[in-house]
Design brief:
Elements: H1 3-28, H2 34-56, H3 61-68, H4 70-94, H5 97-104, H6 107-119, H7 125-143, H8 155-174, H9 182-204, H10 212-239, H11 243-247, H12 252-265, H13 271-294
Helix pairs in contact: 1-5, 1-10, 1-12, 2-4, 2-9, 2-10, 3-9, 4-8, 4-9, 5-8, 5-12, 5-13, 6-7, 6-8, 7-13
């Protein structure tokens, strides 16, 4: 196989693993509180990323990168994993997996919007249209399709799911200033985020009780949401010469996730979820694909 074919295999592996984690979150939250799950998953991810760097012969980069920008990685760790995953798991704890998944997936629509004030980017007409379409989908999912009564199953859960998209975007915007090794940066963020998690857990919660089933569920989240899958995706991007085509594979993730949610959690997928997710995916397709095919020098679309 050539490098592009290998890249697609790595990318498909990452997409398949990411597609399982929404169901895995709900399973793990049967054993843990949201903050306890963050602790177990982050510890697993730290161990996994350390082993990967050791195998790559790059573990020595950790101290070097940290000493260059210690405050930067401290702030990064506060955003992710501490705040982002705490809020995300709390949303999953309150909402059906299908709703939390769909709402969280709008981060890709929000990112170019927040890039305007934080990075000085301009907002294209395509981005604005995509945002309007996506948030119609959010409204459909949040109300369960009950437009007239405006009935929300869990307003706090919905707010937390949407807040998680803000935190994720802020994390990625903040990390545009990072020129270090991506895996090292992630390990530093997780290691420096760990004290925030432990202190908050001791002050507001309690240490988790670990059974074999609970430990497996928490470690699965750490491995395949935060650790191994991220590395697979990085390898895929490095090996391909068509990164734009590779990024379209991510569209498979929410679709496959709904299948895993139905299969593993036995959730009946509501019509409103299908409809709302359709709006969100259509917005993402518009945002990612339309400029590639339509925009030319001098085009007024962007």
């Amino acid at each position: 196989m050539n490098s592009t074919q290998i890249a697609y295999l790595y990318g498909l592996g990452a997409v398949l693993l990411w597609s399982t984690v929404a169901a895995a979150f709900k399973v793990a939250l049967d054993y843990f509180t949201p903050l306890q799950l963050v602790l177990v998953a982050v510890l697993t991810s730290i161990a996994t990323l350390s082993i990967i760097l050791l195998m790559q012969g790059k573990l020595n980069l950790v101290s070097r990168q940290f000493l260059q920008r210690p405050t930067f990685y401290l702030i990064s760790g506060m955003l992710n994993p501490f705040l982002y995953y705490y809020v995300l798991f709390a949303a999953y704890d309150l909402l059906p997996a299908q709703q939390a998944l769909s709402l969280n997936y709008t981060w890709a629509i929000l990112l170019p919007i927040l890039s305007v004030p934080f990075l000085g980017h301009s907002l294209s007409k395509t981005d604005m249209i995509a945002a309007m379409i996506a948030y119609v989908g959010v409204f459909i999912i949040a109300t369960g399709g009950n437009f007239t009564t405006m009935s929300f199953e869990s307003p706090i859960g919905i707010l937390l799911a949407l807040l998680s998209t803000v935190l994720w975007c802020l994390y990625w915007i903040f990390n545009t200033k990072d020129n270090g090794n991506a895996i090292v940066s992630l390990l530093l963020s997780f290691t420096l985020g760990l004290p925030f998690i432990v202190i908050t857990l001791l002050l507001t919660d309690k240490l988790p009780t670990l059974t074999a089933e609970a430990l497996f569920a928490g470690m699965y989240v750490g491995l395949f949401e935060m650790g191994v899958t991220f590395v697979l995706w990085l390898i895929a991007l490095k090996k391909t010469d068509k990164a734009a085509n590779m990024s379209t594979m991510v569209f498979l993730t929410p679709v496959l996730s709904v299948g895993f949610i139905t299969w593993i959690l036995k959730e009946n997928i509501a019509v409103a979820t299908y409809l709302g997710l359709g709006f969100i995916l259509s917005a993402l397709a518009l945002q990612k694909l339309l400029p590639r095919f339509v925009c030319r020098p001098g085009s007024q679309l962007t």
